[in-house]
Structure formats: C-alpha cells, structure tokens
Amino acid sequence: MTRRGFTMMEVLICLVVVAILSSMGLGAFSALRRRGDFSAAAATVAAVAAAIEQYPLRTWSVSYDHDGDDPEDDGFATGGGPATPQRLRAGRIFDCDDTNGPLGGDGLIDGQPATVAGTDRDGPFATETLRSGYTGFLAMTHAPISGRFIDPSGRPRDAWRKPLRIAWAAGVYGTAGFGVWSAGRDGLDGTADDIISWSKP
C-alpha cells in the first residue's frame, strides 16, 4: 500500500522549520539594512562637510532696509527723497533662513530658499536674502549627493529622511569651525547613533 499525502504532524513540522528559517533570514536582512543606512548617511554627512569646507565663504551678508523707508529697494524713500543708507546683516552660510530672526538660521542645512516654506521650498527667507543671490547649499556648492538624500525642498537628508544639521563654533567642531551631522535612526541629537563630521577628542 502506498501513502497518498502527509500527516498533519509532518505539515506542522515543515511549517515550523520554514518559520524558523524565515525569521533567521529577516534578522540578517534587517542587520544588513541598518549597516547600509548608517554607511549611506555617513557618506552623505562627509560629502556635505567636504563641500562646505571647500566653499570660500563662511558667512553671507545682506543689505537691508533697517528703517522701512525704502520699500522698493531703489535708494529712494516713500515720497521721493533719498532713503537712509541700508545696513549690512550677516549670517552663517548654509543656515541663513529667518526662522530664528534675520539670517538666524534653524540649525538645518538650507535647501532651495523661498520667502515661505512649502513642499518644494525651504523658508522663511527674507526678500533681501533672496535678492542677494543666495540660492541654498546644493545650488551653491554642487555637492555630489545622490537624489535619494535630497528632500523635495533641496535640503540634504540622511537615510532616515531627516534633514542634516549644521552648527558653527570655533574649537567645538574641530579645525573646520563647523559641524554637520545626522541625528541617526532615533532622530535625537546627542545620542550614540549620531553621525558626525568632526572627530571627538
């Protein structure tokens, strides 16, 4: 007499074996993906830091109408007389938005600037900043960054889709005077998974 099928016990054993092998494979795949994300984010941080290091400016200066008497920005006050001279305001390059006051920055590397933030623009930027020729990090440095690591507003981002951060301080971030970093998978600054552009002492 020949057997015509499997017993319920044999089917269950096969299912258990397949489930164990699948879980082992998924665990290995997850570990590989985490390592890949970390490596990609580290490469992006390094490329951004290198582009900023090579850029010839460290600040961006903008002339502005400090007393509001030259709304047309043509040198003449409302009513026809000469306007008071404009003043110069400077901010740290690639963090020039007006989130924290004029050219005060928001700690994130600038994307494509606009007076109002939108899905495809970074902002808010003062009209004077836009008139000055400031076009944001990517347009000014032409950094070699994969499109996967650029958000719709033109900001460089990490493997977890969070914008890269920037800060300026002499002596804090090594000899460059600035630091670029990703907050890592957890998205929190100052934790063990941060990916930084400078060497810690």
Summary?
The chain has 201 residues and is of the alpha+beta class.
User: What is the SS-derived class?
Assistant: alpha+beta
Helical percent range? 25-40%
Please count the beta strands (DSSP E, at least 2 residues each): 5
Percent of sequence in beta strands: 5-15%
The low-confidence parts are none
Strand numbers in spatial order across the main sheet: 3-4-5
Helix and strand succession?
Answer: HEEHHEEE
For the report, how would you describe the main beta sheet? 3 strands, antiparallel
Shape: elongated
How many DSSP H or I helices? 3
Radius of gyration from the alpha-carbon trace, in angstroms: 26 Å
- Give the end-to-end Cα distance, rounded to a whole number of Å: 78 Å
- Mean pLDDT, rounded to whole units? 83
